[in-house]
Design goal:
With 231 residues, the chain is of the alpha/beta class. The protein has two domains: 5-161, Rossmann fold; 169-223, no CATH class. Helix content is 39%, strand content 15%. The protein has eight helices and seven strands. The protein has helices at 17-29, 63-77, 90-99, 117-133, 144-153, 169-173, 195-198, 200-214; strands spanning 5-9, 34-39, 55-59, 82-86, 104-108, 138-141, 158-161. A five-stranded parallel β-sheet has the order 3-2-1-4-5, with helices on one face. Strands 6-7 form a two-stranded parallel ribbon. Helix 3 (90-99) links the parallel strand 4 and strand 5 (104-108). Helix 2 (63-77) runs parallel beside helix 3 (90-99).
Length: 231
Amino acid sequence: MSKPLILIACYAASYGGNFIRSMRALADAYDGDVSFLLPEKARGMKWLDELGEYETGFTPFDRKGLRNACVALAQKYGNHAIVHTHFVGGLSLREVTQVFPNVLCHWHMALDAPIGLKSKTISLVKKAVFNTFYSKARFIAVSEPVASAIRREYPKVRVECVPNAIDFSRYADCGLEVHGRPAFPIRALIFGSHFERKGVDIAMDACAKLLQRRAGGGASLQFLRIIPVNA
């Protein structure tokens, strides 16, 4: 029997999507007890049904609420657990690591480029926090550009690159640049700035087929353009 697995996810979007399904798949594949800890705002979401009968708790995801919830979990499981956090950043993450000092923790984070004064200020604070409190952590990036960005932002942490299974050849099939923008007129807005992660090219292809049907077969991908939007 494996150690209990605690999945702490700062996720309260109305759409569960592949993230919640991936969490459920991980729970199903794990040979041990699994507990979910979610934000109070996630209570009542329809996608909670997708988590099945697994133990699920809710707490305000401020530092105090997260700490109290983690203390309760630590009292139940002690140091005999594995903790996965998803989208829990900076100072909030420190509350988790302080409650579970001797527990193996995996942190799943999103890397966002700082845009605007507020975002840049938050980025500086995040940089100081990680370089101070998490200098012994090991970061795993899924591509070389991401690894380079992490090394630039957090020079004191250890970074390894483990390329994932993304196949960029599919972008060539659509006549798109992997990280660029096609040069034809805007006709639709598709959200998502991480093309390879969000499958924007697949969404474009679906929209193009819809346009073709409406136009009697005359429309094509040239009616669409990707605009990077964090969503």
